[in-house]
What we know:
- It is a single chain.
- With 153 residues, the protein is mainly α.
- The protein has 7 helices and no strands.
- The chain has helices spanning 2-5, 19-39, 51-63, 83-86, 93-101, 108-125, 131-150.
- Helix 3 (51-63) packs antiparallel against helix 7 (131-150) and helix 6 (108-125) packs antiparallel against helix 7.
- The radius of gyration is 16 Å and the shape is globular.
Amino acid sequence: NAITSGAYCVTCRRAFKNLHARSVHYATSAVHKAEKDSAKVDNSAKVDDHPLGRVAQVLRETMGQPDAFVFNEPVNPLLVHGYQEVVDVPMDLGTILARLLDGRFGAAWEVHREIPRVWSNCELFNSKESEITMMAKRLSEFFHARYTALVRP
């Protein structure tokens, strides 16, 4: 049973046959959730003209990368045993984007300061040579390059 095995989306409760299918769904569900949340924001001014709008764009682009599906949603402690004991302050890209769209950041540098926590938590919990840590490093490089190009011209 997909529901009892944990292969379901925590956002929409859609059940999947396996964890891989659920992970692929996560790659888009966090983005779709963020898009729904952004529709609630007053868009009377062009968002991309503001540094926070540009950092939101960079975050969305990062979340859309092939390696990002693992980092777009909070780690489920029921599926990843021991995570809560190792990682003191969990963080994921979807949570950062949701907080950004909710107005909890006053400047782009505040968002930029929060992003490395996602990568450091990954490295802390997994070995430095693990595939998931390599994914985090690739995403970190992508985010940094896009942030430098769009937010900090």
